[in-house]
């Protein structure tokens, strides 16, 4: 499936000089850089994260009602987005809208470089073991009202299936706050973070003795279902919830693999890693719904 999705990075155009038997010209629209909620982040480039979704919450179904864009998500198929379960219902209402292919929130400035679409979310499926207020099983699937047409600006992300402990670096992306209790970024941001061993992460959280974090993880950091990432001065922040922690793939071409979903942390870029829902642990559950 992932290899099939990567084909949408190409477009086919009529040749400038039409000759008998001339075929369409294949154009590569990959926007991913060669180098491998966000503090210390950089503004993302057009087409760099074509799977990014902006999730909008509202108390009403009317598309003219006030929409609060509070979470992120990742497109994983023509019809489904994966996000955090704690994003499904907020004080502003249910997750009811998804905007894809956008860079700048509530702005037309980027229309020259993007091709955004906003689609209604018609079904929200939280993981059956998720408990509000806890950090475990913080994953949800959102079904869109219609199939999405893929192009250079909108394309799914691959699901990571590796169950071993991650190391190295990964990229988080989102429209989150750029400082603790600050205002949200209008621009889609990216930040490179170090991946932490879950045992090391668990030890750091236990030593910190933060009541809010201990309440979220009474059994500690789960090595099977969580992954931690951090870089001093850089982190995912409020508003980045539900967005992806990802790595670029060598194959298929111009595709990312989602390692985690932004779940929770202690303030922003402080002295503790951010915690992400580990995708590989939930692949069977995701596949049973998205590709039954």
Automatic annotation (TrEMBL):
CDD domains: Tryp_SPc. Transmembrane segments: none annotated. GO terms for molecular function: serine-type endopeptidase activity. Keywords: Disulfide bond, Glycoprotein, Signal. GO terms for biological process: proteolysis. It comes from the Eukaryota. PANTHER family: ACROSIN-RELATED, HYALIN. Belongs to the peptidase S1 family. CLIP subfamily. This is Peptidase S1 domain-containing protein. It comes from Rhodnius prolixus (Triatomid bug).
């Amino acid at each position: 499936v992932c290899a099939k999705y990567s084909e949408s990075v190409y477009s086919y155009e009529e040749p400038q000089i039409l000759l008998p038997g001339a075929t369409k010209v294949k154009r590569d629209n990959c926007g991913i850089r060669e180098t491998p909620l966000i503090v210390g982040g950089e503004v993302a480039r057009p087409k760099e994260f074509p799977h990014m979704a902006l999730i909008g919450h509202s108390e009403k179904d009317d598309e003219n009602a006030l929409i609060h864009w509070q979470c992120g998500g990742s497109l994983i198929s023509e019809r489904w987005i994966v996000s955090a379960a704690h994003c499904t219902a907020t004080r502003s209402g249910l997750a009811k809208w998804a905007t894809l292919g956008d860079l700048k929130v509530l702005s037309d400035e980027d229309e020259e470089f993007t091709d955004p679409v906003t689609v209604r979310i018609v079904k929200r499926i939280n993981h059956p073991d998720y408990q509000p207020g806890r950090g475990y099983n913080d994953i949800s699937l959102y079904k869109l009202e219609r199939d999405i047409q893929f192009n250079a600006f909108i394309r799914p992300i691959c699901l990571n299936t590796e169950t071993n402990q991650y190391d190295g670096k990964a990229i988080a992306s989102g429209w989150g706050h750029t400082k603790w209790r600050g205002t949200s970024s209008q621009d889609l941001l990216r930040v490179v973070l170090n991946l932490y061993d879950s045992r090391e992460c668990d030890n750091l959280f236990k030593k910190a003795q933060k009541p809010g974090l201990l309440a979220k993880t009474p059994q500690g950091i789960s090595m099977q279902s969580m992954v931690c990432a951090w870089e001093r001065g850089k982190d995912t922040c409020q508003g980045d919830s539900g967005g992806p922690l990802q790595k670029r793939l060598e194959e298929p071409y111009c595709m990312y693999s989602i390692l985690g979903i932004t779940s929770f942390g202690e303030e922003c870029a402080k002295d503790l890693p951010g915690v992400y829902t580990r995708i590989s642990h939930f692949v069977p559950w995701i596949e049973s719904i998205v590709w039954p």
